[in-house]
């Protein structure tokens, strides 16, 4: 695997919103989706642009909004959690406000650029070093990039774990680079704050622990009948000179402004589609915005018509998510992503058709749940593989 892991600047929060309270949070969801950078309606003397986590052209360094059959989940810069979501939570009745949660600990996000490896193997190889170092992680696969979230307090341990697995830190790229295959044997950890339970010694032990924990918490994998997804991307706008309007391309927006303007770098049709989808509380929609990527979308196929020609990708694809409701597991649980994805990769390799489906496996972590996304046929195989493992604990 040739992977490069780069940290995204900023501290981030995970927000859990139960679906019953989704309507109360529609306005803050739209507000972070459309960060115009002008004066805030609530505080006209304080421009929204003063909130941290936005680039000079008013783009989020990282943002994920996911609506699933289990919850609405948001990963956003901590300043947006505090200034946009907390005021709404405080206005709710006590019994309702207690159902919404913002992570007490902050998280850091790093992006993973990799090539030459099937997606399922990539998920496992990128999460294994951290899981075996006892670091809890959240994993988000997008159209362009993989993103991993880890607690901010574990940043130094992350670096140590990656170096122990053969990654090298590149000062030039400010990133960890793995020019060779990642090893799954346990490396030594010099963390100053070791986990209370010793980390597993290998991936097999990690998988055993994962399914024992899922069985103990009575987590049953399930699919939502009739729900089919596509993974796609918002198209980049091209200005009159034929240049991309993404930041850094030529500094000129589609309207010829010399200054960076957020409206110059978005496709209105894409955002109208997103707003329309969010307003109707979709059965499934996961949007990821990252400063260096075009918008990435994992969406219910029945909503594609809202986006017209503003998206690119295999819109004829047929992906099915397998959900794991992790509401009863603590946020600091380790190894769930790697254990589940790793076991599926192994199981599919033993299946004579595994190679055809393993390459399509991806993963979405939300605040209180996980979703393994595969082809329609691959999901049937995965359910058959997962169910008995969870029933027996292995």
Tag the structure with descriptive keywords:
single chain, globular, three-stranded antiparallel beta sheet, 13-stranded antiparallel beta sheet, alpha+beta, VC0802-like, 394 residues, 10 helices
What does it look like?
By secondary structure, the chain is of the alpha+beta class. It has one domain (4-37, 47-172, 200-238, 262-390): VC0802-like (2-Layer Sandwich). It is 28% helix and 24% strand. The chain contains ten helices and 16 strands. The strands form two sheets. Strands 1, 2, 3, 4, 5, 6, 7, 8, 9, 10, 11, 12 and 13 form a 13-stranded antiparallel β-sheet that branches. Helix 4 packs across helix 8. The longest helix has 17 residues, at 376-392. It is globular, with a radius of gyration of 21 Å.
Structural class: alpha+beta
Provide a count of the helices: 10
Characterize the largest beta sheet: strand count, sense, and whether it forms a barrel.
13 strands, antiparallel
Into which percentage range does the β-strand content fall?
15-25%
Number of domains: 1
Number of strands: 16
Instruction: Calculate Rg over CA atoms.
Output: 21 Å
Indicate the CATH class.
Alpha Beta
Helix content: 25-40%
Gross morphology: globular
CATH second-level architecture:
2-Layer Sandwich
Low-confidence stretches: 182-196, 241-259, 352-359
Q: Could you please say which CATH topology applies here?
A: VC0802-like
Give the CA-CA distance, first to last residue. Answer: 29 Å
